[in-house]
Write a structure and sequence with these properties.
This protein is an alpha+beta fold and 71 residues long. It contains 1 helix and 3 strands. Strand 1 and strand 2 (18-21) form a beta hairpin. It is globular, with a radius of gyration of 13 Å.
Length: 71
């Protein structure tokens, strides 16, 4: 399988850690003290999630984007 591209949603928690999640993959999230550490951790967890994905690789939903809503 060739290289795949995933989008990581990144937030910063109350302790200052960066938390990332790939919403297209089940339970695909990690954290790091820096963005660089988070991205390294996310690469590892994405590979693990792809190995454990039950569906066909072509059936993984495409990431569309994030919308900001003010209420």
């Amino acid at each position: 399988m060739g290289k795949r591209e995933f989008y990581v949603v990144v937030e910063q928690d109350e302790d200052g850690y960066f938390v990332g999640e790939v919403t297209q993959l089940t339970a695909c999230y990690s954290q790091g003290e820096t963005i660089e550490e988070l991205i390294g951790n996310m690469r590892e967890v994405i590979c693990l999630c792809l190995e454990n994905e039950d569906r066909d690789a072509d059936a993984i939903p495409e990431f569309v984007g994030v919308q900001r809503i003010v209420v």
